[in-house]
Amino acid sequence: MRKILQIILLRPVLWFANKFSSRPVPERISKSLSELKEQIEKQPGKKGPLIPFNAENGRVIVFSDQHKGAKNGADDFMLCEPNYLAALDYYEEKAFYFISLGDNDELWENRWPAVKKNNAATFEKEKKFIQRDAFIKIFGNHDLAWNTDVTTAFEMEKIYGQKIKVNEAVILQTNINQRPLSIFLTHGHQGDLQSDGNWFSKFFVAHIWAPLQAYLKVNPNTPAYNTTIKTLHNQIMYEWSAAQENTLLITGHTHQPVFESLTHLERLYRRLIQAKNENNLALTEEIKKEIHFREPEFTAVSADYLEMKPTYFNSGCCCFSDGDITGIEIENGFIRLIKWEKENQTPQRCVLEEKRLSELVSDM
Predict the structure, then answer these.
(1) Are 64 and 101 within 8 A, CB to CB?
(2) C-alpha to C-alpha distance for 102 and 219, rounded to whole angstroms
């Protein structure tokens, strides 16, 4: 049956995918982000909460893009699950606040009952944060159904033991060096024609279009699977954040970690310049080897990467093909890009980048 439908529907499906696929448009993204931030500031709770945050002793972990699946060949989360479970144990023990930043559940490729059945262990770990009122769940484009489905509250209560609201964003409000700072967190699909239209278009994409694409095995061409779009999308997100006053933007969506507005490759180039200036030949050669290894993962380096404001961060994802996961920590006055990876078959936390918030704000 699928092959017959592929023959009949492939051409119109491809036309529709091309017309409404993810093509980052700066004006559309900027407008969507600005409106969302303003709505939360003026009406906290409608689109997401506005939370007072003490940056000096507060603890927050941000993970995104788990894409929890059905434990089948298409499940990108399955290899990462051990690292994810170990990470949640660590952050629960240390009493972190957990923000799950969208695309937590892969509802484009799977029906919800299959996701729920095959990820009971992760839902139980997440439930511990909810029980101490330390959990925010954000929807993304791959679990957009949580924003349109009338059964969302019922389903959340079934897996987490209590009703929770699935939000579009959250703002943490704090003060650094006697200066107000808003940390604005959202999935980052805003401005995407596939998932950021009116209520009807969102409902159509979540409940009709996405399942049809998955059934027919048509690539939805989202930033996570297209390196050109991925890099461009991060650049547009940065440009919006750099234009805001006293604001840091943290997103997911692209699966590409970003720290202080720079990708890993851009930070390597910056370190290379520093090593050369210090005449550190050994470090220079080491960084050159790392750059050569990493360059195939990226399509571009921003022309102004040495002058970019440190206003944009991306948590990466929890579905890398090697089983690693990345996230953003904010703890005791620091912001960090972290990775959880297996070392001798044991999940280990690794700090990739770190900066004091006070230094970061001074550089904005």
Answers:
(1) yes
(2) 20
Owner of token pair 């894409």: 67
Element holding 348 (H helix, E strand): strand 346-356
Residues 6+ apart with CB under 8 A from 236: 24, 26, 29, 30, 191
322-351: pLDDT as tens digits: 899 999 999 999 999 999 999 888 999 999
Of 192, 245, 249, 196, the residue nearest 222 (C-alpha): 192
Which CATH code is given to the segment(s) 24-212+221-261+308-363?
3.60.21
Residues 6 or more apart from 132 whose CB is under 8 A from it? 95
CA distances from 164 to 58, 69, 135, 252, 353 (A): 22, 21, 9, 21, 32
> What's residue 289's pLDDT?
81
What residue ranges do the domains of the chain occupy? 24-212+221-261+308-363
Strands 262-263 and 258-259: antiparallel
- What Rg value do the Cα atoms of the chain yield, rounded? 20
Judge whether 225 and 75 are in contact, CB under 8 Å: no
Mean pLDDT score, 5-19: 56
What is the value of pTM for the model shown? Answer: 0.83
Residue 37, classed as helix, strand or coil, is: helix
